[in-house]
Amino acid sequence: DTIQYIKSDVVTICVGLAASMGAFLLAAGTKGKRVALPHSRIMIHQPLGGTAQRQASDIEIEAREILRMKDQLNKQLADMSGQTIEKITKDTDRDYFLSADDAKAYGLIDRVISHPSEA
Known about the structure:
Blueprint: H1 2-5, E1 12-14, E2 17-19, H2 21-27, E3 34-36, E4 41-44, H3 56-81, H4 85-91, E5 96-99, H5 100-106, E6 111-112
Parallel strand pairs: 1-3, 2-4, 3-6
Antiparallel strand pairs: 4-5
Helix pairs in contact: 3-4
């Protein structure tokens, strides 16, 4: 939410790997100012939760919260990328890795920096 309320443009740059919430934050930058280096990787997936050795009622509460968060994050990723909610839901069911060029085509970033002078 914070990035969306900042009045100034927010430039996001992927150097190496933007995974999980890192990929989400990369995509949350100002449209037109989300970039990645050419050999970067971007990975999106559904939220994770730990439920080991807990009471069944606590596991149920946590599972409901994770599913709520999953829906919310998928809707935001769809808005940021231009993909359909159905595609985002399918792609984030498991770890989904993209090259910088693929992330651009997907709509998570706007530009791949191919030369230092472009930075």
